[in-house]
Each structure stands twice: as C-alpha cells, then as structure tokens.
Design brief:
- It is a single chain.
- Strands 1-2 form a two-stranded antiparallel ribbon. Strands 3-4 form a two-stranded antiparallel ribbon.
- Helix content is about 60%, strand content about 0%.
- It contains 70 helices and 6 strands.
- It is mainly α.
C-alpha cells in the first residue's frame, strides 16, 4: 500500500476496487491522476473567471464522471477542498436555481462517506443552507409565477441538509433553537415550518462529550411538546422523525423507557385498524407515524437495561396485529403493515451489523452494555415469526414476507428455515394450490443464502438443495407463466451459489465406483459450497483505448465509414428519397459510429439495475457486506469495463457537426418512418454533446417562420423542438436560445392541420410545465473565489493548469458584468418581441394566446417587467378570451407583487411591559410579557393618536412560545413609502396600471367580466383575484377606490337572480382585496374605509344565501388572516354584535355564526376576550330549536375551547376553559339518564323473556304519541349541541379525552338506546365512536375506569352493551397504556361480571369483548379463567316441562360459562392452541341445552368450522381420533334420508 501511495503521491480516500481486476490495471493510476489534475485546474479556473453556468457546471460533471470511474481517488486535502468549493457554489446568493441541484447532488456524493472525514477535518456553516432552503421552500414569489423551480428541488435540498448536518459547528444547535423557537405555535401553520426545520437541521450525531451542546438543549422540551400533541396533528410526523434519528445516533445515551408505551400506542393507532362491532368507525387519515422512522426509533430503543421492556411491547404489538396480516383480512391498512413487515427485521439486521461487524470509525460507538445480546435477537425473531408465516400467503403477494424472511433467517436460520421448509414440501407436492407454491418458492429463494452458508447454525440446510431442485421441475409449466418464472428464479439462484461439476466421465477414470455408489448423496452434498470472494486473475477484456482507436489501413475506421456514408446519403436523398429502409439503416450506422464503443447505454443500464437487484437479494447485510458470490463479482467487473467504454466517448469535432446536420435533414424528411428514427438519434446527440443543438437553431427558427416550408418538413422541425421526455429545445436555460425559438414558435402558424397544431400545443404545454427560470445576474462571492484559488494551488496531483495569467481576476469581473448586462438586454428584447407580435395583429387567436402564455412565464422577481408587457397585460384584463383574461389577471397580480415597495421596519423590545421568563424556561401560552399584543377592548386604537402609538404585530405566532431574538415591526406611516402619488411621480412600469384603472369605463368592463360565472355550482372564491386587488390597493393606496365603490355595493347587494352567487363572489374578492391592501394606510384613510365597509358587511350578512355561504366563510377568513386583531377592531366588534337575533331565520343565524367562526379562528390565541364574550353570548342558545344553529354552535364551541391547552405544566391560557363550561352544562344533562329510562318502556325487553316483547313495543308506541314536556325537549336539544361539540372537539383539539369529558359518557351510553329521536341516536353513536378511539393519557386511565364502573351500574342494559363495545375499542386504541397489570385486572373483572348479567344481550356482548381482548393479546388465556368458565358451565339446569318456569339464575350462570368457553374458541380464528380441543369437547356437551345456550354452542361450532376450514389438514393434527369423531358428528349435518 505504501509503495502505491508513493507512486500516486497521495493516500486515496476510497479507491474503486473493481479497477484492479482489469487487464490494464497498471495504466489506470496514471490515467486517473491526469484526469484529476485536469478537473482540479479547470474547475478552479472556471470559477475564478466567473464562468459558473457553463464552465463550472461542465467540470463538476467531469468530477461526477471521475468518481463513478475511479471512486474517491484523491487525497483528504483535495476531498475537503472539493467540498468547500461545491458548498460555496451551491450557496451563491440568487444563483440560477437550476444550477443548485447540479452542485448540490455532487456535494452530497462527496459527503456521503462520512467515515472518511471527521468534524475536525471539516466544518460547514448552516446559515447559508438555511437561507437557500428558505428561499426555495417558502419563496414569496413562486405562487405568483415569478420564480420557476426545477422539479425535485426540495428533495435535493433535503438530501443536502441531511449530509451537511454532520459537519455543522457545535454552536449550531443553540443558534437554530433561537432562530426557530418563535415560530412554534400549534394553532398556526408556522408550527409545521418550525418542526420541519428542526427535523432536517438539528445535529444529532455529536460525540458523547458534546451532548450538552446538542440534544440535551432541546430533548425534554420537545418530548413535552410531543406528549401534549395527542390527536396526531400533521407536524407530529416531523418530531417523530427527529426523535427516530436522535435515537439511532445516540443508542445507549438516552433513557427512552418512560416513553416506550406512548410510542407503541401512537404507532398502533396510526394504522387505523377497524376494531369491534361499532356501527360508526371514525376513520382518520393518519400518516404521522412514518413506518421507517418509527421502526428506527423502536429498534434503537432495544437492548440495554430497558431492552426487555421494549421487547415485551414488540411481542404484544405483533400479537395484536397478527390477524390483520392474515390473507382473509383485506383493507387499506395492508400496505402500511407490509412496510412494517419489511422494515422491522431489516433495521434490526442493520443494527446488529453496526454493533458487531462494521469497521470502527470516528462516529459514536454503541456502549457495550446496550448492544443486543444473542438471547434478545432470538426473542425478537420468535416474536415476528408467526406474523411472517401468516402473511406469506397474502393476496397482495409474498414479496414483503420474502424480504422479512431473508433478514430473519440471516439472524436465526435454525428458527426460520425449518418452519418454511415444512410449508414448502407439501406445497410442492400439491398441484391444486399454485398460489401457495409460488409464495413458498419466493420465500425459499429469499432465504437460500443463509440456508446454504449458515454451517454453524443450520448445517442440514445444504441437504435440501437436491430435493428442492427435483421437486421444482414440475413448476416449469407453459400454462402458468408466473409459476414458470418463479421456478426459473429458484433454480438459477441455487445454481449461482453452488458449483456444479459434470461427473459423467468418472466411470472411465475411476475403478472404485461401486464403493462411491453407496455414498453418492453424501459426497455430492459435501461438495456443495457457497463461493464468495474469488480471484479474478484470468479475467480478460481489451482496454478502452483499443476499442476507441480502431485503425484501418492507417486511417481512423470510424471516419472512413462516415465519409462513405455521406456519399451514400447524398445519393439516396437526391435519387431515391423514398427508400426508407436504406435511410433507416444509414441512421442506425450513424448511431453506431457516434455512440457504440463496445457497449450500449441501454443494455448497460438494464444490466446495472439487474445486478443491484440480485445483489440486494443475495447480500448478507448483517455480516460483511462485501462477501458477494462469485457470479456477481464477475458481472460487476464486466460492467466496470463497459462503464469505462461508455464514459470514454470522444469530444465534439467538425465531423460530429457534419453528422449532426445530416441527422437533422433526416429528422425533417418527407417520410414519417425516417423522421422518427432520425429524431431519436438527434435527441441522443443533444444529450451526449452539450450545446451541439446551437448549430441548428438558425435552420430551425427559419423553417418555423417561413411560410413556404413544406408541411412534412415543418412537422419534423416541430418534433425536433418538442424533444423527448421532459427535454425540449424551447426550455433551454439560455436567453439566446429562448430569444430565437419562442418568437419563431409563436409565428409557426403555416398549417391548420389538427395533428400539427397538437404538436405546437404539446411544445407550449411542455414549456409551461418544465421551464426553469434562467438566470440574469450571477455574482460569484469572494469566499467562492477563495475556495477555487485554494483548489488551484493544492498538492498532488498538481492542478492542470495550476496558475492563471496575470489580470485573470479583472477579466473574470468584466466577463461576469458583460454576461449579466447581455442577459438583461436579451430578456427585455424577448419580451418586447413577443409583445410586438401580439399587438401586430398578424397572429391567429390561438398563437396570440400562446404568446401571452409565454410572456407570463417570463415574469421575474429580480427584474422589472418592461412597460410594454405591463400595458399589454393590463389591457387584456378585459379581453374577450376567458383564458387570456385568467393569464392576464395572474400576471398583473404578479407584476404588482414585483412593484411592491419595501416598507421600513424598526426593532422593538417585547419585554418592555413585563420581564421575560427565567432563562432556559419556556411557558407557551398567555404570559405577562405577551399581554400587550392581546385584544383588549379597553385599549383599542380608536383615534389617530392611539393608532400611531400602537405597535401592531401581524404575525399571529409571535409571542406564543417565545419572542424572536430581534423583533422587527413596521415603522410608523410617516416613515413608509409615499402612498398618494401623482402620475408624474410613478415609475414607467407603474403608469400603465395607473392609467387604465383610473378609467371608470375600463373598471366597469373589468368588474363585468370578473363577475361572469364560469362553472355553475362549482366556482369558488378565487384567491388570484383577491391578490390582484390587494396588490392594487397596497401599491396605490385608495387612489382607485372611488371607481370601485359603487360596483362593490351593487355586487354584494345582488341576490335576485340565478347568477347572484358569481356577482357576490366578485364583490367579496374585491372588498377583501381592498381591506387586505389597506394594511399600510394611515388612520384617517383606514377609518374612512371602515365607515364605508361596516354598513356594507351588515347588509351582506343578511344577504348570504346557501350558494354563497362557503365563499363568505373564505372572505371572513382572508380578511382576518395574519392581521393584528387590534388593527381590525371595528371588523370584530361588528361581527360580535348579536350574531343570533330575534326574528332572524335559522339560516341567517347560522351564517352569522359561521362568519364569526371563520374570522376568530384566524386570530387563534390572541383574542381571549372575544372568545369569552362569544361563549357568554352563546350559552343561552345552546338548546336552540333549529338543528343548523345548534350544529354551528357545537362547532364554534370546539373552536372556543381549542386554546385550553398547555404544552408544559406551567403554561396557562386566558381563553375559556372546558372544565368551567362542563360544570355549567352537566347538571342540566344529569336528569336525562333516568328520564329516558322511565319513559322508554323497553328496558325489560330481551331475548330471555319473549312474552314481554309485544307489551314493551306497544308501550313504546303509546309513548311516541304522548306530547313530551318542553323541559325535556330543551334538555335533549342542549344534549345534541354538546354532542356536536364533543365529536368536533375530540377530532380537533390537541389534548384528547380530558377528565371532565368523561362526565358525558354515562349520558351518551344511556341516550344511544333512545329509539324515538334518530338524530340524537346518530349524534350519540358518533360521540361514542370518537370517545372510544381517542388517546387516553396515563393520568386519565383511573377516571376512565371509574366512568365505566358507573355506566355498569346504570339501570339501562343498553348502556352496559354499549360500554362493552367502548371497552373493546378503547383498550385496542390504548393497548400499551391499559396493558399494565392493575388496569388489565380491573377490565377483566368488568367483563367477568357482565358475562353473568341478567340480560342475554349484555352477556353476549361481554363474550364478544372477551374474545376480542384475548385475540389481541390484552387478556391471557390462563388456567384460572378456563376453570372459572368450566365451573359456571357445569351449573345444572333441569329440563322444564311446558307449564314450568325455568330457574333463571342457574340458566344465566350456565350460559355465562358456555359464552366464556365460546369466547376462548373464537379468540383463535386462525390456529388451534393446545387447550382448544378440550374446550370444543366441553361445548359439545351443551348442544342439547335449553335456549339460548344451544344457539350459542351451535354458532360457535359453526364459526370454528368456517374459520379453520382452509388449513384443516394442519389443524386436525391437534385433535385425537376420538375428538375428531365427536366433532365430525356435530359439524356434519345428517343427510335427509338418514
């Protein structure tokens, strides 16, 4: 190694191992050193000369090629210098965004191998990347169309952050927390932004001695936050991924044991599995717990002191989920469960590899006492084995199970493989179940390597090879293609791993064959051996140079062929142009000459993909991953040679240009067949030879513009421009190309043939979809130049060139300025050319539309739009074409954003009214220091002096969690840009807007077209119109308001005819824009505006119709959004003025409440006073007589109580508290429990007492006819409102079931059986479903169990039935909270008590609940329980005569015993435990018992037969012959003639 380092001159970071097996390996070092020197020199030179877009991009591409061919074959010094230069390039401010992914992708490739560079070697600042991510992910310009981003840009940036994070400085964690903590406000969308930033940026892999500067600064705080989010809000996903990454990076340094149950509980809930027999299932799409992240978290918690606790949870987890993996259970949960099945063992294998087999590096090592022990691995494999066995035969296929089995068998082959083979042999011998055979074969292929190579653990694995291969032969069945493929895969997999020797000649060589014959099998098997790394000395291929430089009689053969083909092509084109076959062959020859250097790119890509899929399947990911089988290694070396051939393509010469011109002529041939083939090869040229298309631009644009271009040629040219895939000549990021092609495309109107117009349509669509904003100004930073200079003067190999000529810096500066000025000139010219074409009147309407569409794509955030374009867009606001109007509206809106003037901000001290909380403590919610920004009717800015003194804070989230380090708000009006400007004071780009919108006739037409209906019944409030008017009144103040006033009044008062909704909608959009745009107006103008607006809104609230209700909701939302409530105090006071009024219709009342709700919800936590006032106002109306008003009040209540939420124990809120409200309401609902029961006359009705049925039903009929008293009606209506609040609240609030909400559970259970009022019944069912599926915190379990006990004591047996259903769902949804012994025992006692209930329905429901809880593993089938039920079932019941009445108590106990035994049978639908045969025998003794026992037994036996039918050949092994006879007698009905 030392000799090689001396030869190279440096120690390579990571060489490509496969190059040393090539026959010319000794030349590769010189070749790679020359290539690296050239890359270093030219990349640095390109940057120093400021040629970033072309030069730097090209040489970064060459660096990518170098790494693919030679690996990271450079010194550590060069590695660091490359990273620093690429980092600087990526983070150049305002760099053309399409260059960012190119640089970022290569930077990621250099950072990927973390073990090569330590934190001491490299440090990267985090703020430049944060700024880049902020500019892209939260760009204020993108939704206006002022920035066009590359596809997958966000993904590339996430990847970049992921790999840079390791090298952030130690101070980064604290800086990030200071930066993003102020964004934390769970009621605001900024919370998602903050959590995402924390998730992606926070470093978690610091060394143990630096943990105090890392996760210890935030872990407890974030865990508190996570515990407080109990309803799976979307941003919880980010926290989960952050915790998972932290757990993975710090195994053994954090005690997760207090949180284990919560992790499993929430993970289980995320699958949304159907549980129990509830009529209403509340399905919530819950993607919060990403499978990969959550499993990583769980696997990282395994091992160490709390390892057995985690493994206990894993056992319970898989036991509870097992039946959902069964093939007969299909549902939307299957996909997530499949992901779970694959990921869990894969990540455990990954951890074992990291602990035991991975080479040591500088990253944190797992402490010895936290490493997984052998016993823990065995236990984990055993816990997963039953689940994988069940899921093998899934209807979704066996792929997931095969992957899981592969990983499990790597860990414990002796446990997994014998079980699989037991299934395999019967499946291979059985011809009638091909799906089982295919599944088994897939799985055997997956475990083949551990089966053959695990000599120590499973030595008998090899003995199965020949029997399996022999049994596989019938699988080669031409009638079953799928089975055939799997069989071939199985044979090829075994053959690849086992050397096969032909021994047929042995008889002529050996004379002791008689002795061998006896031991033939043993000898063959002993020779079976899996070969891994092998020498490849004899492997030979020719070098790349040999293939490229093919000589013929001293001349270049390729060139000679080209010359010959050129003459042939000229002849064919002149004399026999219709000879398409010859022309097609000629195109193929050209393609071969240009691109074939011994390997085809398409073939290479297919084989590369195939190699990696086979490698994945046969790789031992647990042990040394490099021990690949010989066949794979040989294939990989061949591919390395082919890759070198493909990358060895020669440069671009004059001969290439000649061929390109010939190919272009063929691509525009008369004949479609020739055109298509010519275009395909031409596209390959464009791809492989950058910028070669430029030599064809003049010909292309001339052909498009000229009127006499032949139609076929014209079509061919259009297809050349269209390109293939996402590539298109018209989307090239060059102003020169765009300037030449776009005007030409717009003038390409020679043909009206539909097929040609479709191609033009496709070009415009592709440009609209794939265009990325080309850069106009690029300014290379001094730090970037410095990094390039260091690379240029770095060590071995010396850069080539290694110096720049004197004055290069000045040339670079001049080149940069010249490029920027040239780009600006070309940009303006393109815009002016397109505008001139539109105004010239020569374009057909369709092409004029294309021109406008292309103009909209040219709008930018960094360069003002030329005045001619502004004038065109504003004029087109009233164009006849709807599409052009839409484009123009969006464009004018974007131009107004572009013209927005910068408003001055000043720094304020948020703590001037009260001191901050103690250092390091955070108290989210209301605090003395944030009281000054709250809405307070005693401190409203109701005159000019107060208004100007008021410090408005429009960011709603500021102050909730904490304040920003430096808090800036807008300065006073006097310091802001002037609003009332004359036309002479305006910029040229602003004048066209001013002139047009000062014309009242233009405004009239504009409003008329805006208020037209597009799609009847489907139109919605259009935010683009709102943004347009907001920009207008923000930039120009109230200049245009006089022209719009009477239109707004007219539109909003219109409710007379069928088009009123489109008129009102237009009025709303305009008025909302005016109000939003008035943010920076002075007090006198704002006050005058509200004097005019308030009466309009009062009238409009009375004019709302069912068609415009949703739009009005949006109106009130957007007016209130991101605005200081004190700024809008008159708006809120107007809304709060008696939303429910005497004499109003129910629709008007609910509409006003809807308006209040939409306005207040945007103010979140900052208006507690308004919330209290609203609650006080609504309290008397809780029992309103109309349903729509009650429903709206219920929904409003959930909004009002939303802010009664604390992240930490010390947090407080001034908003209304649920406890206070419940204490007011619950005394009024208490009487309902008994009131309903006494009135409902059906409490005694049951299956036990048939003779009471008629009487009870007649009683109920009589009750329906009686008039109910008014008090009860009022109470029922109150109850409905409260139920609506509970259903809404449980879904929306962050805390789930709080102690005070449990007070409603007895009322709900009682009222659910109320049969007269269907609405009440539905509300109760929904509320109960929400209750049962809610997350229960550990400290609320006692309250929950006490409530269950209270419901069990109610008189209504219906309540007891319902509470049993509640128990089953609640326990499953909170399995790991309830599984503690004390809770488990209590719930078991509840069920054992209710299974002996007097009412048969309660007993049956108790049996169902018991069965469910045993089935999911919550309750154990122990000896005591079995004996308890056997004793009960032996209660003697004499057969009664017709006249005698039956002793009820004995019958109930006997029935309870039988139900208990039946529940234990039904708890195991897919297997037969040891105790089950005896239980079935016991049940068979009760077949002739009196009803309802007889029915229970028959139903149980029937269900047993149904669920165990598929695998009966396995299950019957558990029974004795006598038991089978008895079972058959009972289950098989006697025939009719017996």
């Amino acid at each position: 190694m030392d000799t090689r380092e001396e030869a190279l001159g440096f120690k390579p970071q990571k060489d490509k191992i496969y190059n040393k097996f090539l026959p010319y390996a000794e030349n590769i070092d010189d070749e790679s050193n020359a290539a690296l020197a050239e890359i270093k020199g030219n990349l640095a030179k390109a940057v120093l000369l400021r040629d970033v877009k072309v030069g730097a991009t090209f040489w970064v591409g060459q660096l990518t090629r170098y790494i693919r061919l030679y690996g990271m074959k450079f010194s550590k010094e060069d590695h660091i210098l490359f990273i620093k230069l690429l980092f600087e390039l990526t983070t150049i401010p305002d760099l053309e965004l399409s260059l960012v992914p190119k640089f970022a992708t290569q930077l990621v490739a250099l950072l990927k191998k973390q073990k090569l560079l330590t934190r001491e070697d490299l440090e990267l600042p985090w703020k430049p990347i944060y700024q880049l991510v902020e500019n892209v992910a939260y760009s204020p310009y993108e939704h206006h169309g002022l920035q066009l981003f590359p596809h997958n840009m966000e993904h590339d940036l996430k990847n970049l952050v992921n790999y840079c994070r390791t090298y952030f400085p130690l101070s980064a964690t604290q800086e990030m927390l200071d930066e993003w903590r102020p964004l934390l406000c769970p009621f605001d969308v900024t919370n998602i932004k903050a959590i995402h930033y924390f998730e992606y940026f926070l470093p978690t892999d610091l060394l143990p001695e630096n943990h105090a500067k890392g996760f210890k600064l935030w872990l407890d705080e974030f865990l508190n936050m996570w515990h407080s989010y109990q309803n799976a809000p979307t941003w919880e996903a980010g926290l989960v991924r952050l915790f998972a990454r932290l757990a993975h990076d710090t195994i053994g340094y954090i005690d997760w044991s207090p949180h284990v149950s919560m992790v499993f509980n929430r993970f289980m809930r995320s699958f949304n599995l159907p549980v129990g027999m509830q009529k209403v299932q509340v399905g919530r799409s819950n993607n919060t717990y990403d499978i990969g992240a959550t499993v990583t978290w769980i696997v990282s918690m395994m091992g160490g002191p709390s390892g057995s606790l985690v493994q206990d949870h894993i056992d319970s987890f898989f036991k509870a989920l097992q039946s959902f993996f069964h093939p007969s259970n299909l549902g939307k949960w299957n996909i997530k469960l499949s992901g779970l099945l694959m990921n869990f063992p894969k990540l455990v294998v990954k951890r074992i590899h990291r602990e035991r087999y991975k080479k040591k590096d500088w990253l944190t090592e797992i402490p010895a006492d936290h490493k997984l022990k052998d016993s823990e691995i065995t236990r984990f494999v055993k816990s997963m084995q039953p689940v994988v066995s069940v899921s093998m035969f899934s209807k979704y296929g066996s792929h997931d199970s095969a992957v899981a089995l592969r990983h499990l068998s790597n860990m414990r082959p002796e446990l997994i493989i014998p079980d699989l083979l037991e299934k395999m042999y019967p499946a291979m011998e059985n011809l009638i179940e091909p799906h089982r055979l295919i599944a088994c074969m897939n799985c055997v292929v997956a475990v083949s390597r551990p089966m053959l190579s695990a000599r120590r653990w499973y030595p008998e694995g090899r003995s199965h090879v020949l029997p399996l291969l022999n049994l596989a032969l019938p699988g080669i069945d031409p009638n079953d293609f799928k089975k055939c493929l799997v069989t071939f895969q199985m044979i090829s997999t075994f053959v690849a791993q086992v050397p096969i020797v032909d021994c047929s000649e042995a008889v002529f060589i050996r004379d002791d064959l008689s002795e061998m014959r006896n031991t033939k099998q043993r000898n063959i098997l002993s020779s079976l051996n899996v070969k891994t790394q092998v020498p490849l000395d004899r492997f030979h291929v020719s070098s790349v140079k040999e293939l490229i430089e093919i000589q013929y009689k001293g001349a270049n053969l390729r060139l000679e062929v080209v010359k010959a083909m050129k003459h042939l092509l000229n002849y064919l084109m002149e004399c026999t142009e219709d000879d398409t076959k010859s022309l097609s062959k000629l195109i193929k020859i050209y393609e071969t000459i240009l691109f074939f250097y011994g390997a085809s790119k398409q073939d290479f890509d297919a084989r590369w993909k195939s190699l990696h899929s086979v490698k994945d399947a046969l790789e031992d990911k647990m042990r040394d991953r490099r021990k690949h089988i010989r066949a794979l290694l040989v294939d990989r070396v061949v591919l390395q040679q082919e890759m070198r051939m493909l990358y060895g393509l020669s440069g671009y010469t004059d001969h290439h240009q000649d061929i390109l011109c010939d190919l272009y002529n063929l691509a525009v041939s008369k004949y479609a067949e020739v055109r298509k083939k010519g275009q395909a090869v031409l596209m390959q040229c464009f791809l492989n030879f950058p910028y070669c298309y430029r030599c064809l631009l003049d010909r292309i644009s001339d052909s498009l513009i000229q009127k006499d271009t032949p139609e076929k040629q014209f079509k061919g040219v259009l297809y050349v421009v269209l390109g293939s895939g996402k590539r298109c000549l018209a989307t090239k990021r060059s102003w020169e190309v765009i300037g030449q092609l776009w005007p030409a495309i717009v003038q390409a109107q020679q043909s009206e043939k539909p097929s040609i117009l479709r191609v033009v349509d496709d070009i415009i669509a592709k440009v609209s979809k794939n265009l990325e904003s080309p850069g106009i100004e690029i300014k290379v930073t001094s730090s970037c130049l410095e990094a390039a200079q260091k690379l240029l003067s770095s060590g071995v190999p010396v850069s080539n060139p290694n110096t720049l000529t004197e004055g290069a810096d000045r040339w670079g500066e001049e080149f940069q300025n010249e490029c920027n000025e040239s780009n600006n000139r070309m940009y303006v010219k393109i815009v002016e050319d397109l505008v001139a074409l539109v105004k010239g009147g020569t374009l057909m309407w369709k092409f004029s539309q294309y021109a406008v569409e292309l103009l909209t794509l040219l709008l930018r955030h960094d360069v003002p739009t030329p005045p001619v374009a502004v004038e065109l867009f504003v004029s087109n606001l009233i164009h006849d074409s709807l599409y052009i109007r839409k484009l123009s509206t969006a464009s004018v809106s974007a131009i107004l954003k572009q013209q927005k003037r910068k408003h001055k901000k000043v720094v304020v001290d948020p703590y001037r009214s009260a001191p901050p909380p103690p250092a390091g403590t955070f108290l989210p919610g209301n605090r003395p220091d944030n009281d000054w920004i709250m809405y307070d009717s005693g401190r409203l800015p109701d005159n000019q002096e107060k208004w100007e003194a008021m410090e408005f804070v429009d960011k709603t989230h500021w102050g909730y969690y904490c304040w920003p380090r430096e808090m800036k708000i807008y300065a006073q009006y006097s310091e802001q840009p002037k609003l009332d400007r004359l036309e002479s004071e305006l910029l040229d780009i602003e004048k066209p807007i001013y002139v047009k919108l000062s014309d009242s006739e233009f405004v009239k037409k504009f409003i008329a077209v805006l208020s037209l209906e597009e799609h009847k019944g489907r139109d919605k409030f259009r935010n683009k119109h709102l943004t347009l008017f907001k920009g207008l009144f923000r930039n120009y103040g109230d200049t245009f308001l006089p022209h719009f006033r009477h239109h707004i009044v007219e539109l909003l008062s219109d409710r007379t005819h069928e088009h009123h909704e489109s008129k009102q909608r237009c009025g709303m959009e305009t008025l909302a824009g005016v109000i939003r745009g008035s943010k920076h107006w002075p007090y006198d103008k704002v006050n005058a505006l509200w004097d005019w607006v308030i009466p309009i809104l009062r009238t409009s609230l009375d004019n709302i119709t069912s068609e415009t209700l949703k739009d009005w909701g949006t109106f009130f939302t957007v007016v209130s959004e991101s605005r200081d409530p004190r700024r809008l105090y008159r708006f809120f006071e107007m809304l709060m003025d008696k939303p429910i009024r005497e004499g109003s219709s129910s629709f008007e009342d609910s509409s006003r409440l809807f308006a209040v709700q939409n306005a207040l919800v945007q103010q979140e936590w900052r208006v507690p006073e308004l919330l209290h006032r609203l609650l006080e106002f609504l309290t008397p109306y809780l029992s309103h007589r109309y349903k729509n008003v009650r429903d709206r009040i219920g929904s409003l209540l959930s909004n009002i109580m939303l802010y009664d939420y604390s992240i930490t124990a010390g947090s407080s809120t001034k908003s209304p508290h649920r406890v206070d409200f419940v204490q007011k309401v619950i005394p009024r609902l208490e009487p309902l429990k008994d009131l309903v029961l006494s009135d409902n006359g059906n409490n005694g009705s049951s299956k036990d007492e048939e003779n009471h049925r008629e009487m009870s039903s007649s009683l109920e009929k009589m009750e329906v006819e009686d008039d109910e008293d008014e008090e009860r009606k009022t109470t029922i209506r109150l109850c409905k409102t409260v139920l609506k609040w509970i259903s809404d609240g449980l879904g929306r609030m962050f805390t789930s079931t709080t102690p005070e909400l449990f007070l409603f559970l007895p009322v709900i259970c009682t009222l659910e059986s109320e049969t007269k009022d269907e609405e009440l019944k539905t509300d109760c069912s929904m509320a109960l479903a929400c209750f049962s599926q809610a997350l229960i915190q550990e400290n609320n379990v006692t309250v929950c169990l006490e409530t269950i006990r209270e419901v069990m004591g109610l008189k209504s047996w219906h309540s007891r039935v319902l509470i049993l259903g509640y128990i089953q769902v609640m326990v499953f949804c909170n399995l790991f909270t309830m599984i503690q012994t004390k809770h488990k025992k209590e719930i078991q006692n509840f069920i054992l008590h209710l299974i002996c209930d007097d009412q048969v329905e309660v007993r049956e429901m108790a049996a169902i609940t018991l069965s469910g809880l045993v089935h999911c593993g919550f309750l154990d089938m122990d000896k005591d329980m079995l004996e308890h039920f056997e004793v009960l079932s032996k209660n003697k019941v004499k057969k009664r005569k017709l006249a005698d009445s039956m002793p009820l108590e004995a019958l109930i106990k006997r029935h309870a015993g039988v139900l208990g035994l039946s529940a234990l049978v039904e708890a195991y639908p897919y297997n037969v435990p040891e105790f089950m045969p005896q239980i079935l025998m016991d049940l068979s003794n009760h077949v002739n018992d009196p009803q309802p026992i007889q029915m229970t037994v028959k139903k149980t036996l029937s269900n047993f037969r149904r669920t165990h039918h598929d695998n009966w050949h396995d299950h019957k092994q558990m029974f004795t012959d006598d038991q089978l006879v008895i079972l058959t007698d009972i289950l098989v009905s006697p025939t009719y003639y017996a």
